[in-house]
Each structure stands twice: as structure tokens, then as C-alpha cells.
């Protein structure tokens, strides 16, 4: 079973706290050379906000974005980046003129985003959304340094292949997703065999209490209003369908030394407890924090140290209570569909992710309803299985080929 971090297993990619204390003092004080892939997104903004609060700790190397040239240029100037890369070549001229005379190098195109991920750095924040982040995140892993992984799709669609890449290069993988950051902290140095269960929490999204009839009519605007977290559009819709939790179960399967049946999701509307790890002695270790991604991002950047964040502190008395409930698989079938894909293995999670990306975009474009998202993904998985698409992915190119075919399939099965 593949797993990347945590426990005292021989496969742990991260050095432990004791070895950190043996490092020479200079290594602790030298600024961390940091690149941010997806700098204009929600995770990118939170990451650069931490850089802004700790200017002495970081030296920004490369920043990338897909199409927002003016935002990218402003960030590159603010953080004195060495390189700014825009994915869409149509925005190259704009970026170049905005950065003229600054000394910041400029490039454009998907190949240039990948090259930015290879630009020598101590840590690469992989925060491009979707399967579009796979090639750049793999490129980042090739450096053999630290990869702070927000792009969950990399583990969902190409888990074993990505971890093999991490192994080959000797890179350190630090989870950024809040639940996985929490599990990483809760597991600490516990040995793999002592972990009974990992329980990821889900807020339940904006429609947690909605009846099925109400779900039929919800709009993209309503779905984009997450009760606790401020995130990009794709992950916000996934939180509303609970597909996000399904993707995160698959992510956890690859990150931690557990079998699929040892992973669970529980609805926790306050989003204060991010994950619970149940041990064989009956202990349950949990990590709590205000729902703000700057806390797990700070950990991924600074670990094994910690750095201060401006995140509001928890006030347990004001919170009064924390509640937990079982997910409702009837109203939110996406979680079960993702679990089936995890159990099926092979390329099933890649098909799941690709079909879901297409279905979520169709919902955001008002071409399908909220309740059409999960059945579209389920139909794609059935078709992919029938056509033998689920088997045999050994390389990143194989995964991307399956991803492409699943997208075509999803467009064909979208309800009209
Ligand atoms: P976002 O939509 O806010 O930002 C995405 C970033 O990726 C932008 O900078 C955009 O320019 C870039 N991008 C988009 N398409 C691209 C392409 N084809 N090529 C290159 N760059 C491209 O997304 P986000 O919410 O910041 O999420 C980023 C990743 O982090 C996702 O994988 C998400 O699941 C994960 N994540 C996000 C949160 C959160 O709170 N936002 C929490 C946990 C995990
Ligand atoms: Mg999460």
C-alpha cells in the first residue's frame, strides 16, 4: 500500500523533528526559496500572505497563474519574484509590459509553467487547481526538495505514480489540505500498525440541511457560498456535493499508511476539528484550528518548525459545542461514488476526478443541475469500466490519456 507521510515507517518522506534540531543554525536562518504554482488562486493568496508576514523567512523564486496577468504582475513585484509565468500565451504581452524594467523574467505557456516548477527552489507550493496541475506538480517533485501539496488531484488521479516520483527524487511531501495536515500532525511518530482509523471531517457545505427537492433547484451562486471556508470555485462546489471529501479519502489513502477500509468521513458543521486519528490503544488524536488555510499552509512551509499566522484563535467557550453527524449518502451520493472508485483502484480515481471536473464546470455554466453532478460521474465510471479504461496506468502520460478520454465521455453523458 502506498503512503507518503507520517508514522515511523521506512517510507516516510519527511525528516523527523529530532533531525531538524541537529541542523546547523545557518540552515535554520537562511531564507526559504519558495515558488508558488497557482499564485493567483485562493491557496496562492494565503501562501503569499504568510510570505508578506514573514519577509525575512522567504525568498520568492517563481510565481505562476493561468490568465490573470495583472494580479500575477502585482504579486511578482510585491514579492520580488525572479520569474513570473502565465499559462495562457495570449496574456504574455500584457505580463511582459507590466513587468518591463523590473528585472523579473517573464514566460508563457503550459511548458513554461512546468519549467517554473523546475526552477531551483527549496519548497514549491503546488496550488494549481485540477488535473491541469499534474505535470507542473510532477516537475516540482523532480527537484527532490519540498513539495507543499495543495493540488489533491495529483494524488487522486496519479497517486502511486506521483509517490514513485517523490521516492526517486527524494523529495519531501507535505500535505496542505487541512484534513491531511491535521492527520499528519495527529499521527506524529505513531507507528503505522497502531493506527486504527483516520476520520476526515466535512463541513457538510451550504446544503447540509436541504431536502432533495431543494437540492434540485440550487444555483451556482448558492453553492459558492461556503459556510466556513473561503476557497476557489471548484473545491467549493465539491464541498457542497461532498465529492471533495471523497477526493480527500483517496488523497489520505496515498498519504498515510492505512487501508481504504480504515478511512472514514464524518460531517462536522463547525469545521474546527479537521481530522481525528483513532489509535489501537483507544486514544483519538485530533487537530483543531479556526477554518483558515493559512494554518496548514504555514505548517507545510515551516515544518518541523512553526511560524506565527494572523489566523483568528479558537475561543472554545464562544464556540460552545462541536457537533458530528453521519454523511447522508442519499442526498450526497458523491462520497459513496468516490469511495467505490478508491476501492476499484487502477484508473478509476482518475476517471472520477476528470468526470467530476467536467460536471462541476457544466453546473457552474448552468448547463446541468446540482443533482446531475454525481450521476454524471457515476455513469462515466460505469462506461469507463465497460470499455476497459480503468486498467493499466503506469505513467503520468497514461493517466493524462485516461483523463482526456474520461472528459470526452463526461461531455457525452451530460444531461442536455
Ligand atoms: P483557485 O481556483 O482559487 O486557484 C487556482 C490557481 O491555479 C490559480 O492561480 C489559477 O490561475 C491556476 N490555474 C488554473 N488553471 C490552470 C491551468 N490550466 N494551468 C496552470 N495554472 C492554472 O483554486 P484553489 O482553491 O486555490 O485550489 C488550488 C488547489 O488546492 C486545488 O487542487 C484544491 O483542491 C486545493 N485545495 C484548496 C483549498 C482552498 O481552501 N482553496 C483547500 C484544500 C485544498
Ligand atoms: Mg480539505
Quick overview of this protein structure:
This protein is of the alpha/beta class and 416 residues long. Among the domains are: 31-176, NAD(P)-binding Rossmann-like Domain (Rossmann fold); 345-416, Rna Polymerase Sigma Factor, Chain: A (Orthogonal Bundle), CATH 1.10.1740.10. It contains 19 helices and eleven strands.
Q: Would you write up a description of this structure?
A:
- There is one protein chain.
- It is built from 19 helices and 11 strands.
- Among the domains are: 31-176, Rossmann fold (3-Layer(aba) Sandwich), CATH 3.40.50.720; 345-416, Rna Polymerase Sigma Factor, Chain: A (Orthogonal Bundle), CATH 1.10.1740.10.
- The model is unreliable at 6-27 (pLDDT under 50).
- It is 45% helix and 14% strand.
- The longest helix is centred in the last third of the chain and has 18 residues, at 396-413.
- A 7-stranded parallel β-sheet has the order 4-3-2-1-5-6-7, sandwiched between helices. Strands 9-8-10-11 form a 4-stranded mixed β-sheet, with helices on one face.
- It is of the alpha/beta class.
- The structure holds nicotinamide-adenine-dinucleotide and magnesium ion (MG).
- Nicotinamide-adenine-dinucleotide is lined by residues 38-44, 65-66, 87, 113, 127-129, 132, 150-153, 177, 229, 231-235, 293.
For the sheet with most strands, the description reads: 7 strands, parallel
**Number of helical segments with 4 or more residues:** 19
- Strand residues, percent: 5-15%
Strand order of the largest sheet: 4-3-2-1-5-6-7
- Could you tell me which ligands this complex binds, including any ions or cofactors? nicotinamide-adenine-dinucleotide, magnesium ion
Amino acid at each position: 500500500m502506498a503512503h507518503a507521510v507520517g508514522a515511523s515507517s521506512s517510507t516516510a518522506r519527511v525528516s523527523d523533528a529530532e533531525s531538524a534540531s541537529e541542523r546547523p543554525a545557518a540552515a535554520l536562518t537562511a531564507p526559504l526559496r519558495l515558488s508558488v504554482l497557482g499564485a493567483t488562486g485562493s491557496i496562492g493568496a494565503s501562501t503569499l500572505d504568510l510570505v508578506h508576514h514573514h519577509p525575512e523567512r522567504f525568498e520568492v523564486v517563481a510565481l505562476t497563474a493561468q490568465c490573470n496577468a495583472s494580479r500575477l504582475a502585482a504579486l511578482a513585484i510585491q514579492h520580488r519574484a525572479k520569474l513570473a509565468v502565465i499559462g495562457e500565451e495570449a496574456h504574455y504581452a500584457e505580463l511582459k509590459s507590466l513587468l518591463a524594467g523590473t528585472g523579473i523574467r517573464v514566460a508563457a505557456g503550459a511548458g513554461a509553467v512546468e519549467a517554473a516548477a523546475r526552477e531551483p527552489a527549496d519548497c514549491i507550493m503546488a496550488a494549481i487547481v485540477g488535473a491541469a496541475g499534474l505535470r507542473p506538480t510532477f516537475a516540482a517533485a523532480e527537484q527532490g526538495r519540498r513539495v507543499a501539496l495543495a493540488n489533491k488531484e495529483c494524488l487522486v488521479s496519479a497517486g502511486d505514480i506521483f509517490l514513485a516520483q517523490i521516492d526517486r527524487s527524494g523529495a519531501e511531501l507535505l500535505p496542505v489540505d487541512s484534513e491531511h495536515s491535521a492527520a499528519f500532525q495527529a499521527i506524529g511518530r505513531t507507528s503505522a500498525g497502531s493506527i486504527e482509523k483516520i476520520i476526515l471531517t466535512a463541513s457538510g457545505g451550504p446544503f447540509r440541511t436541504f431536502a432533495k427537492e431543494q437540492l434540485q433547484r440550487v444555483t451556482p451562486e448558492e453553492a459558492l457560498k461556503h459556510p466556513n471556508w473561503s476557497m476557489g470555485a471548484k473545491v467549493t462546489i465539491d464541498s457542497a456535493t461532498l465529492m471533495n471529501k471523497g477526493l480527500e479519502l483517496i488523497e489520505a489513502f496515498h498519504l498515510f499508511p492505512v487501508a481504504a477500509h480504515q478511512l472514514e468521513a464524518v460531517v462536522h458543521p463547525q469545521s474546527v476539528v479537521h481530522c481525528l486519528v483513532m489509535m489501537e490503544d483507544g486514544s483519538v488524536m485530533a487537530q483543531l484550528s479556526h477554518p483558515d488555510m493559512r494554518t496548514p499552509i504555514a505548517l507545510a512551509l515551516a515544518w518541523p518548525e512553526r511560524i506565527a499566522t494572523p489566523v483568528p484563535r479558537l475561543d472554545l467557550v464562544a464556540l460552545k459545542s462541536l457537533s458530528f453527524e453521519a454523511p447522508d449518502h442519499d442526498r450526497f451520493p458523491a462520497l459513496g461514488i468516490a469511495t467505490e472508485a478508491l476501492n476499484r483502484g487502477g484508473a478509476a480515481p482518475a476517471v472520477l476526478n476528470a468526470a467530476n471536473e467536467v460536471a462541476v464546470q457544466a453546473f457552474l455554466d448552468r448547463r446541468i443541475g446540482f443533482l446531475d453532478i454525481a450521476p454524471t460521474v457515476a455513469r462515466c465510471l460505469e462506461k469507463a469500466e465497460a470499455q476497459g479504461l480503468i486498467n493499466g496506468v503506469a505513467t503520468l502520460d497514461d493517466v493524462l490519456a485516461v483523463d482526456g478520454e474520461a472528459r470526452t465521455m463526461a461531455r457525452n453523458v451530460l444531461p442536455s
